[in-house]
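Dear colleagues,

For the upcoming journal club I promised to circulate an example of a predicted protein-ligand complex. I picked one with adenosine-5'-triphosphate because it came up in last month's discussion. The inputs are reproduced below in full, followed by the predicted structure.
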Amino acid sequence: MIQVRGVTKRYGRVTAVEDLSFDVPDGRVTGFLGPNGSGKSTTMRIIVGLDRPDAGSALVDGRPYRDLPWPLREVGALLDARGFHPGRSARRHLQALARAGGLPASRVEEVLDLVGLGAVADRRAGTFSLGMGQRLGIAAALLGDPPTLLFDEPVNGLDPEGIRWVRTLLRRLAAEGRCVLVSSHLLAEMALTADHLVVVGRGRLVAETSMAAFLEQYAPARVRVASPEVDRLARAVLGAGGRVEPAGEGRIVVSGLHAAAIGELAHAEGVVLHELSPDQAGLEEAFLQTTAQAAEYRGGAA
Ligand SMILES: Nc1ncnc2c1ncn2[C@@H]1O[C@H](COP(=O)(O)OP(=O)(O)OP(=O)(O)O)[C@@H](O)[C@H]1O
């Protein structure tokens, strides 16, 4: 478990993090969500002892990172996808880390296989694509088989297959009982991965809640619907108090009702649905506005 308590960090006149407190429980994927520049990376660097807070503390299983006797066996972190020597092979990079951390060389081969880099392990890491670099960073984080893991924007620059792979890996690590903290500035991506959420805006806490509760609150106002019997469904939506805009052949956009309610109406009417999708762009926008406003409001109140 990670406990962040009253952390403040300033860089000159910039306050990157201000009086931030939250918990990251074991056995779940906790999403660390906030717009660019909201202090996520700074907080993660403080948790792993790469930066010192001006106030407050960050504890991993009750201890500051610098007091952990075997840091690599206790905390793994992907903070910088390019944090390797470009002239070194992936295997040599991991071997050096393993030696420094007192880990057996056999573990290097295990993590290379785990992240799917076995076949390219002897290539210079400088020739890797962004996605391969991310996999190497994840291999380094997993080297000590640690119970606590931090990933800073792990899906940045990955293709859809790579994104799915990271998502599955994070969920598996949490299912094994580990404490998993993963940052992102995209709510839609987090919604598919995290069970628990810590939301920050301008370095301050905006929300600490379950993903389900957060999505309920920010449920998008608009839902795209496609059906071969869209007129019949539109009448039912209007009858239930929703609003309907036409959106082309066999398509409408509904506002005023959640996707679940529209799905239930369709079922009750015996209408087939070809699409029922919350407007993700609207979701991101609503979320970004709210984080900005909440942070300003809290700043004003404090
Ligand atoms: N080493 C540093 N020196 C000066 N300012 C910094 C430093 N590190 C971070 N900052 C500033 O602190 C604020 C928070 O940055 P941080 O990188 O923690 O945010 P973030 O939420 O991780 O954003 P991103 O998603 O863009 O990485 C920003 O205004 C940033 O410019």
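Two points we might discuss: The CA atoms of residues 29 and 84 lie 26 Å apart. The pocket of adenosine-5'-triphosphate is lined by residues 11, 14, 16, 34, 36-42, 185 (CB under 6 Å).

See you all on Thursday,
B. R.
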